[in-house]
Write a structure and sequence with these properties.
Order of helices and strands of chain D: EEEHHEEHHHEHEHEEH
CATH architecture of chain B: Orthogonal Bundle
Number of domains of chain B: 1
CATH topology of one domain in chain D: Rossmann fold
Strand content of chain D: 15-25%
Largest sheet of chain D: 6 strands, mixed
Strand order of the largest sheet of chain D: 5-6-7-3-8-9
Shape of chain B: elongated
Helix content of chain D: 25-40%
Number of helices of chain B: 10
Structural class of chain B: mainly alpha
Radius of gyration of chain D: 18 Å
CATH architecture of one domain in chain D: 3-Layer(aba) Sandwich
Bound molecules: adenosine-5'-triphosphate, magnesium ion
Structural class of chain D: alpha/beta
CATH class of chain B: Mainly Alpha
Number of strands of chain D: 9
CATH superfamily of one domain in chain D: P-loop containing nucleotide triphosphate hydrolases
Number of strands of chain B: 0
Order of helices and strands of chain B: HHHHHHHHHH
CATH superfamily of chain B: MetI-like
Chains: A alpha/beta, B mainly alpha, D alpha/beta
Helix content of chain B: over 70%
Strand content of chain B: under 5%
Oligomer: heteropentamer
CATH topology of chain B: MetI-like fold
Chain lengths: ~300, ~260, ~260, ~230, ~230
Amino acid sequence: AEKIELNYRLKWLFNTSVAGDIYADAKGFFDDAGLNVNVKQGSPEKNAINEIELGRAQFGVASADQVIRALDKKAKIVVIAQLLQINPMQWIYRADKPKIKVLNDLKGRNIGITFGGNDETIMNTVFAKAGISKNDVNITGVRFDFTPFLMKKVDIWPVYRNTQGVILKEKLAKQNEHVFFFNPADFGINFVANSVITSMEMVKNKPDIVKKFLTSLLKGWEAAMDPANEKVTLDIIKKLDKADNDKIRKKQLTATRKLIKPFASVKIGTININAWKQTQNIMLKEKQIKNKVNIENHLIQVNY
Amino acid sequence: MLYRRIFQFLIVYIFGILFLLIIKFIFSLSDYVIPNILLIIETAAQVFKEYFFDVINTLSVTILGQCISICMAFFVGISGRKSSWIGSFIKVTAYNIQAYPIVALAPIIFILIGDGFISRLLIASMICYFPLLLSVLGIMATPVKDIEHFYIITGQMKWHLEVKIRIFENLSKLTTVISGSATLAMAGTIVAEFIAANAGIGYSIRIALYQSNLAKILIALFLIGIIISVYQGILEVIGEQIKSKWSISKKGTIL
Amino acid sequence: MLYRRIFQFLIVYIFGILFLLIIKFIFSLSDYVIPNILLIIETAAQVFKEYFFDVINTLSVTILGQCISICMAFFVGISGRKSSWIGSFIKVTAYNIQAYPIVALAPIIFILIGDGFISRLLIASMICYFPLLLSVLGIMATPVKDIEHFYIITGQMKWHLEVKIRIFENLSKLTTVISGSATLAMAGTIVAEFIAANAGIGYSIRIALYQSNLAKILIALFLIGIIISVYQGILEVIGEQIKSKWSISKKGTIL
Amino acid sequence: MHLKCKNLNFLYPDSKSAVINNLSFSMKNPGFNAIFGPSGVGKTSLAKIIVNKNNCFNENIITKNINIILYSYNLERLPGWLNLGKHINKVISPEKLHLKKTLIKIFELNNVLDSRFSNLSMGQQNRINLIRYLLQDFDVLIMDESLANVDEKLKGTIILAIKELFPDKMFLYISHNLMEVSKFCHKILVLGNPSQNKPCFIINGQNYKKKCFLDKKKLNITMLEIMNAL
Amino acid sequence: MHLKCKNLNFLYPDSKSAVINNLSFSMKNPGFNAIFGPSGVGKTSLAKIIVNKNNCFNENIITKNINIILYSYNLERLPGWLNLGKHINKVISPEKLHLKKTLIKIFELNNVLDSRFSNLSMGQQNRINLIRYLLQDFDVLIMDESLANVDEKLKGTIILAIKELFPDKMFLYISHNLMEVSKFCHKILVLGNPSQNKPCFIINGQNYKKKCFLDKKKLNITMLEIMNAL
Ligand SMILES: Nc1ncnc2c1ncn2[C@@H]1O[C@H](COP(=O)(O)OP(=O)(O)OP(=O)(O)O)[C@@H](O)[C@H]1O
Ligand SMILES: Nc1ncnc2c1ncn2[C@@H]1O[C@H](COP(=O)(O)OP(=O)(O)OP(=O)(O)O)[C@@H](O)[C@H]1O
Ligand SMILES: [Mg+2]
Ligand SMILES: [Mg+2]
C-alpha cells in the first residue's frame, strides 16, 4: 500500500536529547506502521507550530510556552504527548560555592539569564516564589557560549541539563572542578518543556494516522531509553551527531533518561496536566499571554 | 528628497505587510504565524515608544560604528592600495577577518573585551567596514593619470596627495557608498545587539523572536526602516553639500 | 600570487593564534577558555577531514550565492542608477531590505519558503549582495561624459550600452569589488548555515560554539581562511584575464 | 538652410561677467563656416548653446530646414572594448559602408583600424572620432577643435574632402589656426574679446575648394581683416 | 647641455611595425627646439622615451649636464578642489612667486585665477598647466602640444616670453603648426613617415626672438625644407 508522507519537525539539532525520535526513524518503526516520516532537526529560528499551520509539517516538537502563546493567538494545535517529564532547563554552578538548599540561597549570587528566553520566565517565577527582588541578585545576560561562566564571571548559569550540562560538567571535571545543578522543579516550580504537537484538524480528521505516528514514536522513545538498548541507541545518535565524543554522548543519554522517564512507572509521553496549568499560570502572571487559554482543552492524551 | 524617501519607504512597508496578510488569508493562518492588522496596531500602541527609544539607542551606536568603519576602511584601503607585498598582506588580513563571520569571532571578542558597549560597537563596525573597504580599495588602486602625472614627474607626489586626488575624482561614488553603508552599519549594530547586548532594538528583536511575536518584529522593522530613511536622507544631504563645497557645482554645464 | 596569498594567510593565522596564547598565558586562563597548542593539534587531527568537507560544502553554496548576488546587485544597480522617482524607489527598497538584519528577516523567510537549501542560498546572497550593490550603484550613477556624448547626441544611447561603457571604464574597480565580495559571500553563507542549515561549516561552528569548544572553532577558521584564499586567488586570476581580454593590455605604456 | 542667432546672452551661474553678450548673427546655406576668436572668448560655450537650443535658448537661436545638429570635440573617446574598425561598423547604418571606406582612406586611418582607441596617437584619436560623426545623419556639424592635433597637410586634405563629400551640409569649424580658417571657410564668425569691447561680426573667407584657384592676396586680406576684428 | 639619441628603436608590444626605427640625433645647448612630423609618426612616443630614459633606454639616450627632464601634455588636468591661484601657490617654491606673477600676466590668466580647473576653456586649461611646469626646477621641458588649443597670437607671445625668461633651459616643443615651429625654434627634429622610408633629420629653424628681425624669405625656405623632409 501507498505510504503516508509525514514531516516531523524537532525543536533542536540532532543530538542525544532527541534520541527517541531518531531511534524510531532509524529502526523503521514508522515504516512498520505504514508511515514515511521525515524527521527534521530544528533550531531557534525554526518553529514547528508555524510549519504545521503552513502544512509543511504534520507533527512537531514545541515547548510548552510556545504552545500556550500560539493558543493565545488562536492557533489550532493540540498537544498529543509530553516528552519531557522534567524540564531540562536548569542552572549549573560550581561545587565550591554554597549549595542552593532553599531558594533564598540565590540571594547575592550572579545569575545568568537569557533575556526573552524560557529561563527568564522560570527564574522570574522562582524569584516571585521566594520573594527575591531583582536588587537581591546580580543578573547577567546569556549568549550562546559559556565563557562568562567558565571564567567565573557568573556563578549560576542556565543550561540544558542533558546536553550542555553534561558537556560543561565534563569540561570542569577535567580541571578538577565539580558542579551542582539547580533544578526549579525541586522547589515546586513545574514549567513544562518539550511536547509533541499536531494540528486540531489532524486529530479530528485522521485520528488513525495520529495514533499510528504517536505509537511508533513513543515506541522509539521507550526503546531508546531502555538501558538494555544503550549501545544501539548510542550508535544511532553517533551517526547524526558527530560533534560530541562517545563518552559525552553516553552521559548525555543517562541524563536524558532521567528527564524522559524519571521513574520506571512513568509511561513515556504522559501529559502532566497540572504542570501545564501551572505553566499557563506562570505565563499569565509574567504577562506573556493576555488570557487563560484553557490549556486542558488542548491536551489530548492519545492512548497507545 | 527626504520626504520622498520616507514616502517611498511607507509604500514598501505597506506593500510588505499586505503581502504577508494575503498569505495569511490564503492559507488561513492563525495570528501566531502572521498577526492580523488589529493585533499589529494593538502591539504598536504597546511597544511603539519603547521600541522607538531602542532604535534611537541603536542608531547612536550605528553612527559611531559607521564613523569607525569609515576610518578603518580608509586606513586599510589606503595602506593596501599598492600591489606590493605589504599592500597585499594588509589586504589578505582585512579579507580574512571578514571571511570569519562575526558569529565565529564573537566569542573571541567577548573573551578579549567582555560584553557591553565596546563589543557591540566593535562588532557593528566590523560588519560595516568591509563593504566600504572594497569600494575604497577599488578607488584607491586606480590611478588618475592625467592629474597625477604632474606630481609624479616633478617628484611632488606624496601618499596623501595621491589619496586626495583619487577621493576627489570619485567623490560621487564615495558618497553613494558611504551613505548607503549607513544601512549596513545599522544592520551590523542590530546583529551585534542580537548576539550580545542587553539594550537596543536588536535585543528587543531577539526577545520578540524567542516569543515568536511577529507583530513586535514588524513594528521593529517599521521603526528601523523609517529612522534609517531619515538618517540616510541626512547623510545624502551632507554628501551633496560636501560635493558642492569641495568640488565645483555642476550648475554651469550646458551640455 | 596564489602562493603569496596562502603564505600571507598563514602568517596572519599564526599571528592570531600566538596572540590568543599570549593572552592565555598572561591571564593564566584554563584550557576551556583558550585551548593550548597540543589541544588544538589534537582537535585538528580529530575534525580536520570532516571540517574540510564542511567548508567545501559551504564553498559550493558560496559560489552559487555569489553569482546570485552579483546578478541581484547589477539588476538593482542598473535599474536604480537614474535619480528619477522609480530609480530612487528601487534604491529605497533595496536599502530597506538591507537595513533589516537577516536575523529579523529570517523568520519571515522561513515562513515564506520553509527551510532547506533555498533559504540558505537566499540568506547568503542577501548578505553578500548589498555591498556589491553599493559599488555598482556608485559606478552606474557616474556618467563617462567623453565617451557617452557621441551616443547621446546621435540618439544611439541604449541602457545596455550605457551600462557597458560604465562597466568597462571601471573594470578594475569592479573586479576588485567582486573578487573581494567572495569573502562576504562566504561569511554570508556561514551565517545562513548558522541560522538555518544542517550542513556546512556554519552548522559545525554553531555546534562547536554551543559546546564552547574554541579549539574546534580555531580549526574551522583555519580551513575557512585557507580555502577562501584559494578561491579568491582564482577569482583574481579570472578577473585579470577578463581585464586583459576585454580591454587592452597595459604592456605598451611607456610612462 | 538657415541658422540665426538673435540677441543671445549667456552667463555662467558662478561667474561675474557674461560670456556671450547680445550676440546676433545669421548663417545661410550649406558650407564650411567657422567660429573664430581668442582662447576663452566663448566659442565652445556658443557651440554648446546652439546644440542645446531646444532646452532653454529656443527664442534666441532660430533654425530653418535644420533638423539635426551634432557637436563633436577633440577630447572625446571611443569605447575601449572593440577595435576601431568594429566600433565604426556598429554605429553606422549599412548604406554608409561605402562612404566609410572613402573617409578612412582620406583620413589615413587604414593602418590603425585593428587597434583599440587608447593605443592611438592624439591626432589619430581626433580623426577616428570625426569620422564617426561624419557617418551619422546630420544637417549641421559643429567641429570644436576636432582636428586640433592633426598635422596641417593632412588636415587640409581632410577639410577639402569633407567639403566635396558633404556639399549640402553646414559645418561650424572651431579652430585657432587663422590661415586655415581664412582659407577654407565661407563665413567666419569672429568673436571679439568682450573685455576689450570688440563687437562680433561675420567675415567672408576664401572658401577654397579642391581644384580651385586660391588667390594669395585675397587670403592675406581676409587674414588681416580677421586680425583687426579681434 | 647635450641631449643625444643613438640608434634608438622602439616597438609597441602589440603592434607589428616599429614606431621608432634606428633614430639618431643630437641637440646641444639650451634653446627652443622642436619635434615635428605627421600625426601618428611617433613624436609622443619619442618624448616619453626621453623622459623615461633611465628605465630602459639609458644606452640609447645620452644626456650631459641635464638633470631634470619634465614632460607636459595638453590633456593634463589640475585637481579640482582648489581654485587655480591657490593650486599654483601649492606647487611652487616661494622664490618663484615673482616669476609666477609675470607668467600669469603674459599667459593672460589673471581673470581665471579664482576659477576651478573644470570651468576653464580648453586653451585656458592648456595655459595654466604649462605655467605650473615652467615654475618647477628643470633642465629640459618637453611640451607635447601643450599650447595646441591656444590662439596663435597669444601662443606667439607666450613662446617669445618663455624664450626670454628661460634662456638657459632646453625646450622640446611638439606642435603641428609648421609656421610656428619654423619661426620660433632653433633645431627642428623632423620625423619622416617610416612607411614612406623617409629618414629623420634636424633642420635649423629661424629661432625668432623678441625684438629681433624675422627674415620672411628665410622662414619660407625653412618651411619648404621641412615640407620636403616629410
Ligand atoms: N562651466 C563653466 N563655469 C563657469 N565658467 C565657465 C565654464 N565653462 C567655461 N567658462 C568660462 O567661460 C569662458 C568661455 O569659455 P569657452 O570654453 O566657451 O571658451 P572658448 O572660446 O571655447 O576657448 P578655447 O578656445 O580656449 O577653448 C571662459 O572664460 C571660461 O573660463
Ligand atoms: N600604447 C600603444 N600601444 C600600441 N601602439 C601605440 C601606443 N601608443 C601609440 N601607438 C602607436 O604608435 C604610433 C605613434 O604614436 P604617437 O602617439 O607617438 O604619435 P604622435 O607622433 O605623437 O602623433 P600625434 O601627433 O597624432 O599625437 C601611432 O601609430 C600609434 O597608433
Ligand atoms: Mg573651446
Ligand atoms: Mg602625440
